[in-house]
Amino acid sequence: MTNKNKTKINPVLNLGRIQKPHGLKGELYLTSFGSLLNDIKEGNSLALYESRGSKDGFLLEPKFIKSYTFVKAKREKKNIFSLKLLEIETREKAEEIKGTYAGIDLDDAKKEFPIDENEPYLFHYIGLKVKDDKLNKSIGFIKRIEEAGFKKWLIIEINDTCQEAMIPLDGPFVKSLDFKNNEIIMADISEIIS
Length: 194
Prior knowledge:
This protein has 194 residues and is mostly beta strands. It has 2 domains: 12-112, RimM (Elongation Factor Tu (Ef-tu), domain 3); 122-193, SH3 type barrels. The chain is 9% helix and 46% strand. The chain has helices at residues 91-96, 106-112, 190-193; strands at residues 12-22, 27-32, 45-50, 54-55, 58-59, 63-75, 80-85, 101-105, 129-132, 137-148, 151-158, 164-168, 174-178, 183-186. The strands form 3 sheets. It has a 6-stranded antiparallel β-barrel with strand order 1-2-7-6-3-8. A hairpin with a 2-residue loop joins strand 10 (137-148) and strand 11 (151-158). The longest helix is centred in the middle third of the chain and has 7 residues, at 106-112. The radius of gyration is 19 Å and the shape is elongated.
């Protein structure tokens, strides 16, 4: 039985998972899942969630816990940061949030981290209409991005179908990006998706 009144939950980007406390004053270690943590400004809020984990950069079934005031994050190793949140002042308080995930709602991320067209974050691609340059029409939209090794794949949901197509982001198919018009123009993909 399905719940018709169920509201759609916005996707939540996974910023990282809180690990063990670091020191006595409430600092934490966080395993980072991307580079957004570097760009959060002091004084901004950082939301923590419970989750079953993450997939393709998004939290699975996120359940909001609480927002904290972000103070700083310092990279300790490749994907390990020490993190300081204003309200977490003791090691005991840090222990209480161990295992939670730091996340940001996709719509909020798009507002807080504006597009740099020369170097957009991967989440900026999500929701773009995909236009085939030969057909000169929209054929779908980017549903998500998957990473496999060093390759990034655009997962396109084809219009009026339940089908998806995987197109490499760095391949010859991406002809141009137009973030102002919310579209990505691709070359020679009509045969791939049919």
